[in-house]
Amino acid sequence: MKIQIIAVGTIKENYIKEGIKFYLDKLKKIYDIEIVEVKEEEDPGTPASREKVLKTEGERILYKIDRESFVIALAIEGKEVSTEEFASLIKKAFGMGYKKVVFVIGGSLGIWGKVKERADVNISFSKMTFPHQLTRLLLLEQIYYALL
């Protein structure tokens, strides 16, 4: 079983880095897990430029996804799931024979539509807005509890 997290941008805050390291260290003892970062584009602020930013980041994400992977995109408009449903989703993907589960975390503007279309499932942790850097930590914590 391999788990990959593809995330837009880098983590700058030390407290988030420490939390991510905490869960990665625990998970790496049992699972093959990695975080792949793709470059975040600067948002110039116009609607047209925002779509271009989403497309550029989205193309970078899609380039990193293997065809054989089960993809779960974290999107605010996705289906809200409980921790138990989240765990079931991961286990179901591996039970279906997928060798890798890929989680996608977009940048500050979200996730490009074609990435959400490529995803096998779009989920939301909440209708509330969280910084995408913090979402990475929350995701790792949920993966840890899902795979205990």
From TrEMBL:
Keyword Chloroplast on entry: no
Quaternary structure, from the entry: Homodimer.
SUPFAM superfamilies: alpha/beta knot
Protein name: Ribosomal RNA large subunit methyltransferase H
Enzyme class per UniProt: transferase
GO MF term list: rRNA (pseudouridine-N3-)-methyltransferase activity
UniProt keyword annotations, A-Z: Cytoplasm, Methyltransferase, rRNA processing, S-adenosyl-L-methionine, Transferase
Principal location listed in the UniProt entry: cytoplasm
Lineage: Bacteria, Bacillati, Bacillota, Clostridia, Thermoanaerobacterales
NCBIfam families xrefs: PRK00103.1-3
Gene3D superfamilies listed in its UniProt record: 3.40.1280.10
